[in-house]
Design a protein that fits this description.
By secondary structure, the protein is mainly alpha-helical. It contains 10 helices and 2 strands.
């Protein structure tokens, strides 16, 4: 999109330069600056000289070739009308060519400022908006895919845990059941370490961006209620929290421990309130 905008801009600038070259540039064989000895127009002091007309000399200096005319037209677009000596080129051209130049110049500026530049701005805004919409759609699809992917991996891991525990108990478990219908389990520390070392579970955790260095040391992180067992709900919940960069384990463990401590404090507070209420009744 940017390439085509620049291409169109260069084409318009080239056409404007051709028009300025034909209208304001020197006539064939004209050489007032060097040939006629008039010198640079900024150094002219005798404005009454019929040979050295100031607007012709400025036209020769700034519109003498297509390249010079393109650069001058670009300066006009940016609002730069000064000469080498800091004088106003527009005043000199307007004085020399009269009303015709004024009409052409005003029309040119209106088209460039209120037309062409607004079109370029609209193209950039439209391109940016379309890009943002496209990124939002891609992000939405990526989130949907990630959600289904994580759900499928967790379901497979839970089914694998059920299979390992079933082999330990010497009974079969159902396969292909949805996550909410899979048989629940409770893992002791020994079972938890064995499951964390299982190749399928290890590969699934790697695909879910879960890094567990020492399975035995992280058992307490999964055991949220500190009952010595890891339930299916605790297993899935902590797995979801551990997704991401390495080092999350300690943070999650602290969160789980604080939550467990808070629950115990709440239970203790309820017991104290009940005990105080019973004492007031006896009193």
């Amino acid at each position: 999109s940017l390439f085509w905008v620049l291409a169109v801009f260069c084409c318009v600038l080239y056409l404007l330069a051709l028009v300025f070259r034909l209208l304001l540039g020197p006539a064939p064989g004209q050489d007032l600056i060097f040939g006629a000895g008039c010198g640079w127009p900024d150094d002219l002091t005798d404005y009454s000289d019929p040979l050295c007309k100031l607007h012709y000399m400025y036209g020769e200096e700034f519109f003498g070739s297509v390249s010079a005319s393109m650069f001058t037209a670009f300066r006009f677009m940016l609002g730069d009308y000064s000469t080498r000596g800091g004088k106003s080129m527009i005043i000199a051209l307007s004085s020399g060519y009269g009303l015709v130049f004024d009409i052409v110049f005003v029309t040119f500026m209106l088209i460039v400022i209120f037309g062409f530049f607004n079109i370029i701005t609209a193209i950039f805004v439209d391109s940016t908006t379309a890009g943002l919409k496209h990124n939002d759609i891609k992000r939405k699809y990526a989130m949907q895919y990630e959600r289904e992917f994580v759900k499928g991996k967790l379901r497979s891991m839970v089914m694998r845990v059920n299979e390992i525990m079933a082999q330990k108990r010497s009974r079969a478990t159902r396969r292909g059941a949805p996550l909410d219908e899979v048989e629940s389990f409770a893992l002791e520390r020994e079972d938890f370490v064995k499951i964390m070392a299982d190749p399928f579970v290890t590969e699934s955790m790697s695909e879910l961006d879960i890094d567990i260095g020492n399975p035995a040391g992280i058992f307490d992180t999964f055991d949220a209620d500190a009952d010595g067992l890891v339930s299916m709900l605790e297993f899935v919940s902590v797995m979801m929290k551990l997704r991401g960069e390495s080092g999350k384990t300690d943070v999650v463990e602290c969160v789980v421990s604080i939550r467990n401590l808070q629950d115990k404090v709440d239970d203790l507070a309820m017991m104290l309130r009940a005990d105080m209420g019973a004492r007031r009744q006896h009193a």
